[in-house]
Specification:
threonine synthase activity; four-stranded parallel sheet; 39% helix; TrpB-like_PALP; 480 residues; alpha/beta; Thr_synthase-like; Rossmann fold; EC 4.2.3.1; globular; L-serine ammonia-lyase activity
Length: 480
């Protein structure tokens, strides 16, 4: 299948969203040296992609879906759209991308009132969507280290859990010259998520405070020391996460008319990447219409919602102090990618209309109820997946989505990462600051069949019979 291997290479530059300054892509840059704003990466030769027809691009990407070439099996199936400067030998693949889109169970679909599906990004290698961006960021670092013969590069990130798990996993796989350090807000990462960077051998540091505090520390490091920052300020990560848009379009046979995407905002990197990806597809004619994109935020961390809720001429950006949220990955009061969101949302609305991009607010109670309801119907949604379902329900109630449309919800991580919140719900143990009261219809707890002493007091046959009888009575079974 050598005919599917990329032959087109490009030149790339960092483009500052503040002063429009440009810098070469072969350097570790995260913010503009001139004005301090964030970057987007741009392929200077992007116009050359128009030399191939939209139909040919679709056919090529469909052919690559069957490829056994390692460099094309993950997010780099869309190599020319992502990072066409990289060499195949540097591309890192751990099984990321190409995550399943699972239609809502019929009973759940009927409850909600329109056709929708989950894209299960929790089925990435580290069990979250972050692997899309890390695959690109680490491929770039391999390429850069090889070009410069660097002997050691420290990769650093602040995290609420998923970023650290992903960064540590990819650093462990690549190995020298890369080493991983992660900084976490003490006590605000689930035990399941904490176990991941520890298991991958990263240096794990904890800091009192919240994610925003950790972010300021690693930003200071990146500005004053030669380290590789792996948060979404890293523009290479945004490129890898664009693959979500490309996969979504390809799965729907490049027809995204009447499709509404619901995406948790968090640090705003993912919604940035998805808009950027669809804008590229639209510019090249691979999709004829843009899907509508709804960012979703909890009322406990909703700066982007507040910005867009204001009249257009009265909007001012204002970070917020976050309150505890079960959607931990989205519990960010000052998302670093907001300047990208604002810039790309302008372009997205210009191309798709005023209703093409909107932000929805949800309550913590709605997030937990929606997550449990989804998983009660056979899904594996995390709290962010619950946030998206709650956003869909609210959008329907507000008349922002019609029942003739279809929706795709982003389950950013695997539900097992948030088993602790499920346990708090089932045992009614949430602290008052969350504002969550369990719905008895969604709560679930194990029931004891026999007292613990029964195992030692009864012979095997009697023990089995007594347990079976207790089970039959509990389940109201009728004898044959």
């Amino acid at each position: 299948m050598t005919d599917v291997f990329p032959t087109l290479r490009g030149r790339m530059e960092y483009v500052c969203l503040g002063c429009d300054a440009r810098y070469p892509a072969d350097s570790l840059l995260y913010t503009c040296p001139g004005c301090g704003n964030v970057f987007l990466l741009e392929t200077i030769d992007f116009h050359k992609l128009k030399e191939r027809s939209a139909a040919d691009w679709r056919a090529l990407f469909d052919a690559r879906a069957a490829s056994r070439i390692t460099a094309l099996r993950g997010v780099f199936r869309y190599y020319e759209f992502i990072a066409p400067v990289l060499d195949a030998q540097d591309i890192v693949y751990l099984g990321e991308g190409i995550t399943p889109i699972v239609e809502a169970a019929p009973a759940l679909r009927d409850q909600i009132g329109l056709s929708f599906a989950y894209k299960n990004d929790g089925q990435n290698p580290s069990a979250s969507f972050k692997d899309r961006g890390m695959a690109c960021a680490f491929s770039y670092l391999k390429w850069l280290c090889r070009r410069n013969n660097w002997e050691e590069v420290l990769t650093v990130c602040a995290s609420t859990g998923d970023t650290s798990a992903s960064a540590a996993l990819y650093a462990a796989y690549v190995g020298a010259p890369l080493k991983s350090v992660v900084l976490l807000p003490a006590g605000k990462v689930t035990p399941q998520q904490l176990s991941q960077p520890l298991g991958s051998g990263a240096t794990v540091l904890e800091l009192p405070g919240v994610f925003d505090d950790c972010m300021k520390v690693v930003e200071h490091l990146a500005e004053n020391y030669r380290v590789a920052l792996l948060n979404s300020k890293n523009s290479w990560r945004i490129l890898g996460q664009e693959s979500y848009a490309y996969e979504t379009a390809q799965w729907h046979d490049w027809d995204v008319v009447d499709l509404c995407l619901f995406v948790p905002v968090g640090n705003a990197g993912n919604i940035t990447a998805i808009m950027s990806g669809f804008l590229k597809l639209h510019e090249l004619g691979l999709v004829t219409n843009l899907p509508r994109i709804f960012g979703v935020q909890s009322e406990h961390a909703d700066p982007v919602y507040r910005y867009y809720a204001a009249p257009a001429l009265a909007r001012t950006w204002q970070p917020v102090r976050v309150r505890p949220s079960v959607a931990q990955a989205a519990m960010i009061g000052n998302p670093v990618s907001f300047p990208r969101v604002r810039k790309l949302a302008e372009r997205y609305i210009a191309a798709g209309g005023e209703k093409a991009f909107q932000i929805i607010q949800v309550r913590e109670q709605e997030i937990m109820d929606a997550m449990l309801k989804a998983n009660r119907h056979g899904h594996i949604a995390c709290t962010q997946g619950g946030e998206c379902l709650a956003g869909l329900v609210n959008a329907l109630a507000l008349g922002l989505v019609s029942r003739s449309e279809r929706a795709l919800l982003d389950a950013t991580a695997h539900s097992l990462k948030f088993a602790g919140f499920q346990e708090l719900y089932f045992t009614d143990a949430f602290s008052p600051e969350y504002g969550i009261t369990p719905n008895i219809d969604l709560a679930n707890r194990p029931e004891a069949l026999l007292p613990r002493s029964a195992r030692n007091e009864l012979e095997d046959a009697a023990y089995t019979r007594k347990a079976a009888e207790a089970m039959a009575k509990l389940l109201r079974l009728s004898p044959k």
